[in-house]
Design a protein that fits this description.
The chain has 270 residues and is α/β, with parallel strands linked by helices. It has twelve helices and seven strands. The strands form two sheets. The protein has a four-stranded parallel sheet, with helices on both faces. Strands 5-6-7 form a three-stranded mixed sheet.
């Protein structure tokens, strides 16, 4: 599969590649393969990263370190996502509007710098779930090699491990807006509280890889894998104290366990 992916990218490289790069599992695999190719024979390239309030600062720092380790040039962009009403009000289609702005900036940069192809890390699994942002990528002519080659998240983790990438076992780090119910008015202070609460839980339980702190106004709802619920309940008093110090009045544990995109699942039920 690795050879197949590299052959695919080799066909694009001579005319220049811009990679939408977050530092996550998927885009890091692409960056690593492109790095191998680039250091055998250089081609026009740039990794493009968008920094906004919707990402944890840790994610941006991780992306910078990985790009540096792989000796690939990275360009950082910024914009205020709350300038977009659908994002500010956390509408179900907010991802489309956000990605429309992000990838328009990326496409403009690529065109201005002679990079013909704009790539992203969408994988085959992403095509099976609710992803309104895909429309924006299609509009900008973005190419998704992992999805086109049918690579699942598990395939990507296996290839990442084969290349010795630290991201092989990295948990997913979706947009921070996913911590809030749809149609919730968002601001940076709310996002920061969610980040700090989730980080505190991860520091208390470093062996629990999948942790989500969902925010329902003044209530914090914790999601962890069902197999690890007992670890959380054993420390319930400490957790309550920590999260209440951040401003939450109520702290609850979701007995259904961790569910990626739990608010999207509710959309399907309606």
């Amino acid at each position: 599969m690795l050879a197949k992916l590299e052959n695919y990218l080799q066909r694009l490289a001579p005319e220049g590649i811009a990679l939408a790069y977050s530092g996550g599992v998927d885009s890091t695999l692409l960056l690593a393969v492109l790095s191998r190719m680039y250091h055998r024979k250089a081609f026009p390239f740039r990794a493009l990263t968008m920094q906004t309030a919707l990402q944890s600062p840790t994610e941006i720092n991780d992306s910078k370190k990985l790009a540096s380790d792989l000796k690939m040039k990275q360009q950082i962009f910024t914009f205020n996502p709350f300038s977009l009403e659908p994002v500010r009000y956390n509408r179900p289609d907010r991802c489309y509007y956000c990605k429309a702005v992000v990838f328009a900036q990326f496409a403009d940069y690529a065109a201005a710098n002679g990079l013909k192809y704009l790539l992203d890390g969408t994988n085959a699994d992403d095509l099976q779930v609710y992803r309104p942002g895909r429309k924006a990528l299609t509009e900008q002519g973005v190419i998704s090699p992992l999805a086109e080659l049918g690579l699942s998240k598990q395939n990507i983790r296996e290839l990442s491990a084969e290349l010795g990438l630290s991201t092989a076992s990295k948990p997913a780090a979706p947009c921070l807006a996913t911590r809030f119910e749809y149609d919730t008015l968002l601001d940076e202070k709310m996002l920061d509280r969610a980040v700090r609460g989730e980080r505190a839980i991860k520091e208390m339980f470093p062996d629990i890889t999948d942790v989500r702190l969902r925010v329902h106004n003044k209530l914090a709802r914790l999601e962890v894998p069902v197999s690890q619920l007992q670890q959380i309940t054993a420390q319930h008093e400490h957790i309550s104290v920590v999260l209440k110090k951040l401003g939450f009045e109520y702290v609850t544990l979701d007995l259904e366990g961790f569910r990626s995109g739990c608010f999207d699942l509710r959309l399907k039920e309606k």
